[in-house]
Amino acid sequence: MLRxxxxxxxxxxxxxxxxxxxxxxxxxxxxxxxxxxMKPGSFQTVVMAETEAMAWEVAMGSDVWERIPWEVSDVQVxxxxxxxxxxxxxxxxxxx
Length: 96
Hints:
1 helix; 4-stranded antiparallel sheet; two-stranded antiparallel sheet
C-alpha cells in the first residue's frame, strides 16, 4: 500500500527552516527484555530529529529496533552522518 508523502518539517510558507537529520540510538541488550527474559546483544534504531534530546524522545516511542551483532556498553546517541568529516576539503567546518 502506498502512503501519501508527508510534508517535510520546516517546509511551507512562513515556516522557519529546521535542521532535521538522522540520529542513531543504540542500547545495550541488558536494557531490553524480550519474551519475559533479558537477552544478550545490543539494539539500534534510526530516527529523524533536530537535536540529540529530540532523537532520544522519538526513539523511546519507536517500535522498530534492529539487533546489532556487537555489544555496546552504554546508551549511544549520535548523528548518522556527521556534519564534519576529517580531511574533507569541501566541508563547511572550520579547521584550526
